[in-house]
Design goal:
Layout lengths: L3 H15 L4 H8 L3 H8 L7 H11 L3 H25 L1
């Protein structure tokens, strides 16, 4: 099963690491706890729209660009899942 929170977390982590920024740096700028941001990035917590917007702003990204990345991540996961089912 593909979970939205996992795709959001993966997209946010990719954006942060591409900027060579630490989890601590982004958490401080977004005004969220380091542990909570880590859980969001690992897909263990589902961020509220307010929190997601704060993280996007801390990363210097628009919410729409992150959601586009999430959409691409979901499409990739779904395609991979379909390929496995088709191969069986």
């Amino acid at each position: 099963m593909t979970l939205l929170r996992e795709a959001v977390g993966h997209t946010l982590r990719d954006a942060r690491t591409c900027q060579a920024r630490t989890l601590r740096d982004v958490a401080l700028q977004a005004r969220v706890s380091l542990g909570y941001l880590s859980e969001v990035e690992r897909g263990q917590k589902e961020a509220s729209s307010e929190l997601l917007n704060a993280i996007c702003e801390a990363l210097g990204l628009t919410l729409s660009s992150v959601m586009s990345g999430v959409s691409r991540e979901l499409q990739s996961r779904e395609s991979a899942k379909l390929s496995v089912v088709d191969a069986a």
